Amino acid sequence: MAGLSQIADVDIDPKGVFKYILIKCVEKSSKAEKLVVRGYYRCNFHADILDETRTATPSDFTLKCIGGGRIQHNDLDKNILVYGYSQGYGRADHQITVDILKRKYPDYCITFSNDGY
């Protein structure tokens, strides 16, 4: 699983409201896998986030989006809200997303809602 360690669990914008996706990352040689979270304000569509992530990821990994939504990241109050869904990929399992985000932001209050778009 050493290969997967080079792929960050979380890469999201430091603040604001933006789309995000939950991605299954698989190392081609070992078939080891993990889930990662990516979210950027600059991406207008969830598919744009996946495209950008593929470009930034070494070719010895395959990436598959398993759902999406939105993130409201308040860096001043140390709050993150995960909510909504992706029209193209469906709703990510927001509880899994929250669990992954807590690894990078252990001192934040991170919650989710299945409401909203």
Automatic annotation (TrEMBL):
<protein>
    <recommendedName>
        <fullName>Sex-regulated protein janus-B</fullName>
    </recommendedName>
</protein>
<feature type="binding site">
    <location>
        <position position="19"/>
    </location>
    <ligand>
        <name>substrate</name>
    </ligand>
</feature>
<feature type="active site" description="Proton acceptor">
    <location>
        <position position="46"/>
    </location>
</feature>
<dbReference type="Pfam" id="PF05005">
    <property type="entry name" value="Ocnus"/>
</dbReference>
<dbReference type="InterPro" id="IPR038596">
    <property type="entry name" value="Janus_sf"/>
</dbReference>
<comment type="function">
    <text>JanA and janB regulate somatic sex differentiation.</text>
</comment>
<dbReference type="InterPro" id="IPR007702">
    <property type="entry name" value="Janus"/>
</dbReference>
<keyword id="KW-0221">Differentiation</keyword>
<keyword id="KW-0726">Sexual differentiation</keyword>
<dbReference type="GO" id="GO:0007548">
    <property type="term" value="P:sex differentiation"/>
</dbReference>
<comment type="similarity">
    <text>Belongs to the janus family.</text>
</comment>
<dbReference type="GO" id="GO:0030154">
    <property type="term" value="P:cell differentiation"/>
</dbReference>
<dbReference type="GO" id="GO:0005829">
    <property type="term" value="C:cytosol"/>
</dbReference>
<dbReference type="GO" id="GO:0101006">
    <property type="term" value="F:protein histidine phosphatase activity"/>
</dbReference>
